[in-house]
Structure formats: C-alpha cells, structure tokens
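Retry 2 of 3 after timeout on previous attempt. Resubmitting structure tokens to design endpoint.
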C-alpha cells in the first residue's frame, strides 16, 4: 500500500511538472503568434507578399537565391532581395510556430486521459495551424487574392486565440483549480459582441487586402462629404477574379470608398456593443477590469484608425493598428474566460459555523 502511495505521488508530481511546462509553452505560443501576425502585417504593408513568387521555397530554394538563379527560375518575376527576405522571414517564423504546436501535442499526448485536460483544444490548434499554412500557400499562388489574404489574417488571430485558451486551461489544471460547476454559457449580448468583433476584424482585413486604407481622406467626413459616391456591390464582391496579380489592388475608387465606410460603420457598431456590455456587467467585480480594458483597447484602436487616415497610413502607425486588433482579441478572450468561470459560492454551513463562533 505504501509503495502504491509513493508511486501515485510520483505520478502526480510528474503530471504537475508536465502541465506547468505545457502551460509555459502555450504562453510562449501566444507571444510567438503575435510576432508572426505582426511580421505578416509588415510583409503586407511593404508589398512583400509576392517577394517570393512560389511556395514554400523562394525561387525554388529554401533560402533567397542570388539574382541570376532567381532569373533562371522565374524570368517574369525579378528578384527584389529585401522583399524576398521579408517574405521568407515570415515563412520561417510561421514554420517554427507549427513546430511548437506539434511539440505541445506530443508532450500532452500522455496527459489526454487526465480529467479536464484540453486535448480537443490542442487538436483544434493543430488543425488551425495546418489551415493557416494552406492559406499562406494560397496567398502566394493566388497572387494576393483579397479573400485569401483576409482569411489568412483571421486564421492567424484564431491561432493566437487557441494558444491563449489552451494556456488558460493548462494553467488552471497545473494549479489544481477545477470549476465546481459547469462554466456559464455566453448570453446573447456576449455572443453579439464576439460576432461584431469578428466582423470588424474581417472588415479590417478586407480594407487592407483591397488597399482601401486611405480611400477616404479626412475624418469623420470622407473626401469632404458625409456620404460620398460608393459602389458597395463591387467593393464587397466576394467572387471577383484577380487577374495576373492583385498587388496594389484592382478596385476603382468608389468601391474602395465603400469598403472604408463599411469599416468605419462597423467600428461604431462594435463600440456601441462594448459599451452596452460594460454597462450590463459593470457590477461584477471579476469582470470590471477586463471590461474596462476592452473599452480602453477599443478607444486606442479607434484613435489609431483615425490617425492612419489623417496621416496617410505611415508604416509604423499601420502596424500599431494591427497590434491594436491583436490586443482587442486577447482582451475579449480573457473577458469571455472570466465570464464563463463560475463564481464559487462559500459553503453556507461553514459560513454559519464561523458566524456562530465569532458570536
């Protein structure tokens, strides 16, 4: 009996160490994904998305070749060394992120039978990273088709969200904290806020992939008008062809204006939803810091968007706007996590006994 107790204690100690390691690796994954997303945005903003005309290599090589070999491989796509290295750096980082996901899966395989272990989240993360890799390939092979570029951005944010959710689950398990009752389901108001944030992120990706960031000059008016000429059907035509390349976009001015106005309207609706959400749950002490952080993050993101328009989309400010979107996803995820975790009510009998003793 004593030997079995020692063996169980050793097993438990090993599990706790492995869970702590996995929690640390998943947190690293969150920050690593943020880096990959921002490097991807930088790649996009410096027009390096087609710096390498093929995939997964660059002019048929695993590293950027010299100009002569590049010319032999792709005579119609002259090598621009800086852009090629930017694109390959993004691919190297994304591949390393994939290896981290595989390592998390392998290290956690022996724990999948532990009660509460987030094995399904780990599998979802693997599936999403594979889908994200496919989007990366299609971004190049379909010549920056805006639908794929937008989905590639949303995929990167989804990978980050899954890393964060996995970390929260693993950290709770490593600390021995298990909810006493089932987590709360999201209310319609929470669902609406999450969906509106997703829609706004998609609109932001659509603005970027269609080069509509400065389609409207000035704020709050657009090109000196409150409602300028727009072409909504063309601006949101999701099945348009791309031609030989979508670099610098193909839409006319009215279509890009419609995209920019759609993004602005979406920002206003999202802000209203977050205000209502904060008003509805402000009395819950556990949620108040996260609701306040979300409102602060939204305000920062709003002013960054306005500054991008007024200052004609400088590179550093456009990157900051992308970072603001990443921050909003993180804050929304943490707010949802704290909403879903049940409030542990104190034991009434124990509370009554304490009151009797004090009396």
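Retry 2 succeeded. Sequence:
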């Amino acid at each position: 009996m004593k030997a079995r107790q020692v063996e169980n204690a050793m097993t438990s100690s090993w599990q706790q160490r492995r869970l702590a390691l996995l929690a640390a690796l998943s947190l690293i994954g969150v920050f690593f994904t943020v880096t990959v997303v921002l490097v991807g945005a930088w790649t996009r903003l410096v027009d390096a998305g087609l710096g390498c005309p093929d995939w997964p290599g660059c002019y048929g090589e695993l590293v950027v070749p010299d100009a002569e070999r590049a010319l032999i491989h792709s005579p119609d796509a002259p090598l621009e060394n800086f852009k090629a290295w930017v694109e390959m750096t993004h691919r190297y980082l994304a591949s390393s992120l994939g290896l981290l996901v595989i390592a998390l899966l392998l290290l956690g395989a022996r724990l999948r039978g532990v009660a509460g272990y987030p094995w399904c989240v780990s599998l979802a993360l693997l599936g999403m990273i594979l889908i994200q890799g496919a989007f990366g390939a299609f971004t190049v092979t379909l010549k920056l088709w805006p639908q794929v570029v937008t989905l590639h951005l949303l995929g990167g944010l989804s990978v980050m969200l899954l890393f964060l959710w996995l970390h929260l689950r693993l950290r709770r398990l490593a600390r021995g904290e298990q909810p006493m009752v089932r987590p709360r389901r999201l209310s319609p108001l929470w669902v609406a806020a999450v969906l509106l944030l997703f829609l706004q992120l998609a609109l932001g990706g659509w603005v970027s992939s269609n080069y509509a960031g400065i389609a409207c000059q000035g704020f709050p008016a657009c090109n000196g008008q409150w409602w300028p000429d727009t072409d909504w059907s063309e601006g949101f035509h999701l099945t348009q062809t791309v031609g030989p390349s979508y670099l610098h976009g193909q839409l006319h001015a009215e279509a890009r204006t419609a995209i920019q106005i759609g993004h602005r309207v979406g920002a206003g609706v999202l802000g209203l939803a977050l205000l209502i959400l904060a008003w509805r749950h402000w009395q819950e002490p556990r949620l108040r810091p996260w609701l306040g952080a979300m409102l602060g993050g939204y305000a920062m993101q709003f002013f960054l968007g306005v500054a991008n328009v007024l200052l004609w989309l400088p590179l550093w400010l456009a990157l900051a706007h992308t970072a603001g979107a990443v921050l909003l996803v993180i804050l929304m995820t943490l707010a949802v996590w704290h909403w879903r975790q049940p409030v542990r009510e104190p034991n009434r009998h124990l509370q009554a006994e304490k009151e009797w003793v004090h009396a």
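Attempt log closed. The first helix runs from residue 2 to 45.
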